[in-house]
Design brief:
The chain has 200 residues and is mainly α. The chain contains ten helices and no strands. It has one domain: Tetracycline Repressor, domain 2 (Orthogonal Bundle).
Length: 200
């Protein structure tokens, strides 16, 4: 298997991401990915055994760096304002969504095509990401029940994850405006939950 740290591998993953997002997993052939990346079919198979491994690479690459960033935020649980960790976690997730919208589209609609050990490995990464985000919510909202924090996580991440389905970076709304609105809406929801919990 060829070295996956080089520029050729990065280009293959980049092109696979864009094609999976545009055409779907079933609508994208290995030959089209190879052609877009400027390699032969045989050259591409030096890096993967099949198309499913490319799908996994696209999904895994997208979540990897952001998972590390979220772990770092959780580990720094000291001497912070109550919502500081959440503010940082929202930045991490918005970087993920606005920085690689094609990866989010693949996540939303194509991850179901992963099978076996690849599906299990990716599910473990997502489970870890969700657990870390929920831990951030626990740090910010210790007075709110676990069930409500889980619903809050679904609401916030679901709202942000849907942005690539409607946001057009060539349109009248800037990415900065989208980021600002999503952060303010998420934090306002959290503050409301905190206020409601203390009033009960």
């Amino acid at each position: 298997m060829a070295n996956r740290n080089g520029e050729t591998w990065k280009l293959i993953v980049d092109q696979a991401r864009e094609l999976f997002a545009a055409n779907g997993y079933n609508g994208t052939g290995v030959a089209s990915i190879a052609r877009a990346a400027g390699v032969t079919n045989a050259g591409l198979y030096h890096y993967v055994d099949n198309k499913e491994e490319l799908l996994f690479a696209v999904l895994d690459e997208a979540v990897g760096d952001h998972l590390i960033a979220l772990e770092h935020i959780v580990e720094l649980d000291h001497d912070r304002e109550p919502l500081e960790a959440l503010d940082q976690a929202l930045d991490v997730h918005l970087d993920f969504v606005l920085g690689k919208p094609a990866a989010i589209r693949v996540f939303l609609s194509e991850r179901r095509f992963l099978t076996g050990s690849l599906a299990d490995k990716y599910a473990a990464s997502i489970k870890r990401y969700d657990a870390l985000f929920e831990r951030v919510l626990e740090q910010s909202l210790p007075e709110v029940s676990r069930r409500e924090r889980k619903l809050l996580r679904f609401s916030i991440l679901g709202m942000i994850n849907w942005v690539p389905e409607w946001y057009d970076d060539t349109g009248p709304i800037s990415g900065t405006a989208v980021r600002k609105f999503m952060k303010e809406a998420s934090l306002a929801l959290v503050r409301h939950m905190a206020t409601s919990a203390t009033e009960e």
